[in-house]
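Researcher: Let's try something more involved. This one mixes different molecule types, so please make sure each is placed in the same coordinate frame as the others.
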Amino acid sequence: MTRLPSLLDVPPDRLPRHIAIIMDGNGRWAQRRGLPRIEGHRRGVASVRRTTEECSRLGIDCLTLYCLSSENWKRPREELDFLMHLLEQYMIEERSAILEHNLCVRMIGRRHEIPSQVLNELDKTVQMSARNTGTTICLAINYGGRAELVDAVRRIGKKVRDNQLDWSHIDEEIIASHLDTAGLPDPDLLIRTAGEMRISNFLLWQISYTEIWVTEKCWPDFDEATLREAIRDFTTRQRRFGGLT
Ligand code: IPE
Ligand code: IPE
Ligand code: MG
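Model: All components are placed in one shared frame. Result:
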């Protein structure tokens, strides 16, 4: 992929290949302004647009966005309905921009609990963008790290049972290739907005050596400058992966 280091003052080989974001704080953003929580979600869509396009401009290979966790179904029905409506609308309205920016959309998470009209629009966007060679936008919808591991273990178990796989050949590579994120590099940088110092069941396997960056800004206030700040900070980190520098 062509990278534009001049945009950020960072040598291209120091940029994170894969950025993952826990887009948190939509509700707080709205409540602080005396608005209903859903207004924060609505405003969050603009941050998604800004961030995907900036990642594309910077030549980031992959951006994974935590859109809905498997635990978020505990929320009130009206909020969930609105989130589903936003997702569906996003898939329809962003299609031309996705093509224009050469983005390749894919999804991680359990499909069966997601309403069929959302899945239909999502599948259309995924198919339509499949051959795009720019930034991969990986949408985590009804995603949970533990659920993903359960599903991977089941897939592997089935192969062992059917004699397609010898149990003694199971290693880290085999496990990674049975996760929803199969084929994607592990995230280099994990960003969380709204200040919480926790992982909330996101990409548990994949973030073993990911650099974490947390901002107090709520997701609707996240912009290109904040993303660049996170990336600049990332470039100052010494990644050791358990070794010595
Ligand atoms: C993140 O914002 C969006 C989703 C989890 C869907 P929140 O809705 O969690 O906002 P806060 O954390 O309540 O402020
Ligand atoms: C994580 O945020 C999920 C998403 C951003 C989609 P939450 O708001 O659900 O996380 P907790 O409940 O504060 O841990
Ligand atoms: Mg939250």
